[in-house]
Amino acid sequence: MFFSDGTLSAVNYALVLGITCLTVFCDFTKGSSDFSGYLSKVLRNYTEQACDGHILSVRCPPRTTITVQSAFYGRKGPSHPQQCPQNYQALVGTYNPQEDDRYCSVSTALQKMLDECQDRRSCQILVNSRVFGTDQCPGSSKYLIVWYKCRP
């Protein structure tokens, strides 16, 4: 750490100076709770879902951007109240409840979400089969689910 003449090496001097700054001049107690709250938002996994005809909104905290992990557009079997039951087709009389009991998905969902949201702080996308290409299950009520993280 010291040279023979009693002086500090440049690297060790910088290290001592940095530690001194952190312990004497910086107040960790003031921002530590803000920083831990920020980290918990950044490090967690997010999931957003929206039904056909609605807008899906994806948002990250300030100074972070969206990293899309996965996306699904379609229907995963029987209707559940939280997974977009009967859609507008029920109102016009063309709804077939058996259509909602099947599994169908569109392979373009992940690429579409990457194109629209990747590396942005927020994005919105209309959930509609025209946005995602060919409708693999016409007459069925569908939904979009996006899994993402927020990257600093």
Give a structural overview.
With 152 residues, this protein is α+β, with helices and mostly antiparallel strands. It is 32% helix and 26% strand. The chain has a four-stranded antiparallel β-sheet with strand order 1-6-3-4. Strands 2-5 form a two-stranded antiparallel sheet. It is elongated, with a radius of gyration of 25 Å.
Share in β-strands: 25-35%
Based on CA atoms alone, the radius of gyration comes out at 25 Å
- Count every beta strand, where a strand is a DSSP E run of 2 or more residues: 6
Span between termini: 36 Å
Number of helical segments with 4 or more residues: 5
Low-confidence stretches: 14-30, 88-95
Read across the widest sheet, the strand sequence of neighbours is 1-6-3-4
Biggest pleated-sheet summary: 4 strands, antiparallel
Mean pLDDT: 75
Net shape: elongated
Q: Briefly note the structural class of the backbone.
A: alpha+beta
Estimate percent helicity: 25-40%
Query: What order do the helices and strands follow?
Result: HHEEEHEHEHE
